User: What shape does this take?
Amino acid sequence: MTRYLERAGHLCHLLQLQVETLVDRPLREIHFGWDRVYKSMNQTPLSGGGIEKFASDDYTLADSYTLADHLTFERLNPDSVRNCVAYARENARQVRNHIAAEMWISLNTTYLRLEKLDIQKIWKVAPESFYAETIEEISAFAGVAEATMYRDEGWRFMQLGRYMERAQLSAAILLAQMEMDRRQDGSFDTDWANLLHVYHAFDAYVYAFSVVVQPDQVLDLLVTDLSLPRSLYRSLESIASELSAIGPGPDSRSSADAAALASRLCQLIRRDWREKEDREATLVQVNADCRKLHNLIYEAYIDYPIEESPIN
Amino acid sequence: MDFDTYELDDAVYDEMFLSDGTPREHCRSLYEALLRLPVEELNRMQERVTNSFSNEGITFTVYGDDEANERIMPIDCLPRILTAAEWRQIDVGLTQRLEALNRFLKDIYSEARIVEDGVIPVDMIRGCPHYRLEMRGVPVPHGIYVAVCGTDLVRTNEGFKVLEDNLRVPSGVSYMVANRKAVKTNLRRLYRSCRVGDVENYGGLLRKTLRELAPSDREEPCLALLTPGVYNSAFYEHIYLAHEIGAALVEGRDLLVNDGFVYMRTTSGLKRVDVIYRRVDDDFLDPLVFRPDSLLGVPGLMSVYKAGNIVLANAPGTGVADDKSVYAYVPDMIRYYLGEEPLLANVETHICRRPEDLEYTLDNLDRLVVKRVGESGGYGMLVGPHATPEEREDYAKELRKNPADFISQPTLQLSRAPCMIDGQAAARHVDLRPFLLRGHKTRIVPGAFCRVALREGSLVVNSSQGGGGKDIWVLED
Assistant: This one.
């Protein structure tokens, strides 16, 4: 449930920033934004074609409408905002008796609102306000959960899901940015500034460095700063901490492996990040290890062999 | 609001009004309260009630050709009121009926004396698809096959009648409670002054009942509610009940059989389960015994059940007692097992496997309701007076082909109650489904899921066929 909501919230935030660029930003920046969204999601734009590079304003706006629809409402796109919220709701329905009624109502209301909308309706007025509202509702859900849920194993697993997703999304968007930067022989300052906004980190950056945006410094901040709520390191630390709070699962070997892997990932960022020459390779490794971690957690707590399982 | 356009018909019992248009005495407070309320306020109330169902996701699923559609249960905001005396009649009548049905099940899965004594023809039992040979001789805890029962009752000018016994996995109780919560908050002053019997303690009573059935050596029995899953029509109810009774909500894949016991997977290991309130049909319970292609059940479950290491509520095989043909014999069962006259009447039923009943049914198709014995939810039914001659002819062909699959009943004039339809009070046909629980004793909450045929003139109250729900207030003495 929280994985899907984290994904929906992240995508909404990317789309909110992206539709804001449509108002007055140059075409290059708009194209960069769409490419980054799709790459970070490991998807290609519709029919493999998508946005036509450096076309006219009219074409770009028309393409943007189609892409926004695909990412927001398309039922055949498993990662669309609508689908993520629907999957989260379906998960919530299954555990409805373990979550507060307020949590369910909050999520269900968001789902019902999305069901009544389509791209035409949101595009007519101000699409950014639709995305802002959806982000607000997802945040409200997290707030209601924070305020109402008993801090038992269910809560821990919910948190674990959220941080797992956040770590993967974080690594993915950084990788997309770096790949495009490399391919285009350097991106613009505005692209990196925009990335800071994706992480709600622009003010933190200015505070830590300066108003001059330096790609390396941006990367350092977004990857290693433990005080930044969405930094990669913070997500990985939170994963390790939740796993430790949950304790070993019925499959003790997989749970030990999961805890060890989470701890290794933290170490990789804390100790090795700044010395690493090839930072892109490090992020690729984090991404792959997060997938591995997901499988280990599943084996440790859900799909464990019954022969070795303790009986309560 | 006013009732100027409200339609009364001498042939149809009205739940609120006498035939001269004056309100029944026990409905007077409601009537006067409604008269005082501006229609705009009632419309807002109806909207609030509907919205509360929508936001809380109180839904059911309708299976279409392509996909399952989740729908909000339509609810009418005007309550239907029953007196304490009326409720007592229902209570004792249904208690008597459930006792006889449990004895019948125990009998036919052991000595089958009722068949031997010629009260029920043997082919009626053998021909019933819900008769489970696998249950022959299986000891059932306390002899209680049916722990949860939802009986459909209708009222005509002749009084209450039993339309159907639902003894397998009766649903609707969550809507009964949800209707109550939604309606009472909107009519709070009237509700408080009326002294209405509580239905919201149903979960507590169900929990007590299930714990009474648990193996006696288990001090703190572990309860689980087995659901077919999120796409099941009654999934909302499964979540609600699991929460109310403190049971784990599980699917078949969450359970396993090991060393003669049933366990559920948890994130901290396996946990032994003592009682399963199953909301999965017999056919899907155990692929090793029933349908081998079932993914909803638990392989080996029946072997644990037969060994007495798990309680299933309701027991497998109870469907034979709510078969639409066997239904016709329930009054005889009451006489046979209890030596009493039935306190609640059956609806006159023609069993089409009997040649004379088939002939009668075919001759009177335009006046009868014909039902398939194996169907429920209003599917596969012909309402003769509302059908076209072509529909009746097509149905007659089916009847002639497999008479044993059908029963027929007269088209009952189900009672009507006022409902808010398009901003006005309009009369709609209603029935009621009270829920009985049988543990060490029989328990019933004073209330029921009242189903309403929301389409004008329709007699079909099933939610899958355009029906909705309504709160029932049972007044205390």
In short: The longest helix of chain A spans residues 153-183. The CA atoms of residues 227 and 234 of chain A lie 7 Å apart.
